[in-house]
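Q: I'm teaching a short session on how sequence maps to structure, and I want students to see two examples side by side rather than one. Could you give me a first protein with its sequence written out and its structure tokens following it? Keep the formatting plain so it prints cleanly on a handout.
A: Of course. Example one:
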Amino acid sequence: MKIVVGLGNPGDKYSNTRHNMGWLFLDYLSEKYSFEIKKKTLDSLVGETNINGEKIVFAKPLTYMNLSGNAVQKLKKWYKVENKDILVVFDDIDIPFGETRYKLNGSGGTHNGMKNIVQMLNAKDFPRLKIGIGGIKHEKQDLVDFVLQKFTKKELDELKNDIFIKAEEKFNTFINS
């Protein structure tokens, strides 16, 4: 069994914002693999499916970004998985828009949601899939305003038709590990 956690914030206010990249990617996967992420449990919206004969749990924390670790910790304990079986998907301002990176461990960096997960798990040894949102912020634009800004229609189309396809390759690396 593996768990894929997409970081984001609940509520219509945050729908399609840059900071909800993890939720958007999970929506893409749920459409592709025909399952729903809607059961409220463990401070998350949860859905599951089987891929290559293995149960995969998908979770969107409802704790708001900066407290994502609370939900991840509950999911880990409930499903009794090791850190290596938890993939966290999130936006990264330090990576150019459209680039994706897959790492098996690391710090929380500048991302408050990731910092909280590292703190709550008391570990850095869990896989993560970073999807870049950097390089398009205006120099004088406040960082919080930028990450909470909604994607344009053009950007959303690019996510669904190109970027998420690349990210899915890295997701498959995790699933097949």
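Q: Perfect. Now a second example for contrast.
A: Example two:
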Amino acid sequence: MKSLKKLDIDKILGEIFKEYRIKNKLTQEKIAEKLGISVKYISRIENGTGGVKVETLVNYMNILCISPNVIFNKLIVNEDLRLQMQLSEKASKLSDDKISFVISIMDLLENM
């Protein structure tokens, strides 16, 4: 199984944050203000040269409306986890009735 290095993770997160900041039409200055951190730190994060604290990661996701699946889809390399994420993503698009139906089927399969 491939293991990601801190540099790889920082680069991927930086690319995602920059993409979503631009999609949300925010400047580095504005996102820095919203996050309560310096513009210099935002620049380092987006360039993949500055690590991201968990608090900053969560706040970035909330401010820019970044789904955990967006982040983890690019970071998770374990195939079993990727399949679980795919199942979760597909389930999130179903109505409550259909989710209940799928759960019933899964219960049947589990008890076989």
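Q: What should students look for in example two?
A: Point them to this: The chain has seven helices and no strands. Also worth mentioning: The chain has a mean pLDDT of 92.
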